[in-house]
Write a structure and sequence with these properties.
OB fold (Dihydrolipoamide Acetyltransferase, E2P); six-stranded mixed beta sheet; 5 helices; elongated
C-alpha cells in the first residue's frame, strides 16, 4: 500500500488528488469519493493509505483509500465543542448563575442553525434556493453557533470561505462573551438599569 496526502479536493463533485511518494518517485493520483473507505468525507491535508490501480486513459488512480492512524475528524471535534458549551450553559443555569431556560434556548437555536446550514448545503450543488449568508450569520449571532459549528464541519459547508469564516468566529466569540457578561454582576446591574 502507498501513503499520501490529499492536496486538492472538490467536495461538490466528489473527487480530488493525492500526493504520494513511492520508491523515491513522487506523483499525484486521482481519487474519487467512492474509493474512500471508513470515516466521512475527506478534506485537504488528510493523510491516507491506498492502492494504486489503472484508471481511465491509462493513468493510475487511488483505490481502497483509508485514513491513516487515529484521527479525530473535524465533525467530531465540532460536536464535542458544541456539547461542551451546551453542558456549561446547563451547569450555570442549574447553579442559578444563568437564567432558567438558557440551555433550552441554546439547544433550540443550535438545532435550527444545524437544519438551516444543512438545507443550504443540500441546495448548493442543485442550484436551488440558497439561504443568504446574512441569515446564517444572524443565526450564529443569536446563539445558534454550536449547531452552525457542527453543521459547517459535518456537511463541509462554509469551512474555507472568507470572509464568512472570520465573521462566523467573531460572532461566536461575541455571543459567548455577551452570555457571560449578561449573567455577571456588572451585566445584571446594567440590565436592571435598562429594564428599570
Amino acid at each position: 500500500m502507498a501513503r499520501g496526502k490529499l492536496i486538492r479536493w472538490n467536495d461538490a463533485r466528489g473527487f480530488g488528488f493525492l500526493a504520494y511518494e513511492e520508491n523515491g518517485v513522487e506523483g499525484e493520483l486521482f481519487a474519487h469519493i467512492r474509493d474512500f473507505k471508513g470515516r466521512g468525507r475527506p478534506s485537504e491535508g488528510d493523510e491516507f493509505t491506498f492502492n494504486i490501480a489503472p484508471g481511465k486513459n491509462g493513468k493510475s488512480k487511488a483505490v481502497n483509500i483509508r485514513a491513516t492512524g487515529f484521527n479525530l475528524s473535524a465533525p467530531i471535534i465540532a460536536l464535542l465543542a458544541a456539547a461542551a458549551w451546551l453542558s456549561l450553559v446547563y451547569f450555570l443555569e442549574h447553579q442559578q448563575r444563568a437564567d432558567a431556560g438558557s440551555s433550552v434556548y441554546y439547544l433550540l437555536a443550535s438545532a435550527l442553525s444545524l437544519a438551516v446550514f444543512g438545507w443550504d448545503k443540500f441546495q448548493a450543488p442543485r442550484n436551488g434556493r440558497r439561504v443568504p449568508e446574512a441569515n446564517l450569520l444572524l443565526l450564529t449571532a443569536a446563539g445558534g453557533w454550536p449547531g452552525g459549528l457542527v453543521a459547517r464541519h459535518l456537511f463541509r459547508h462554509k469551512t474555507r470561505k472568507q470572509p464568512f469564516r472570520f465573521i462566523f468566529w467573531l460572532l461566536t466569540i461575541l455571543n459567548a462573551t455577551a452570555f457571560f457578561f449578561l449573567f455577571s454582576e456588572p451585566g445584571k446591574t446594567l440590565l436592571s438599569g435598562w429594564i428599570g
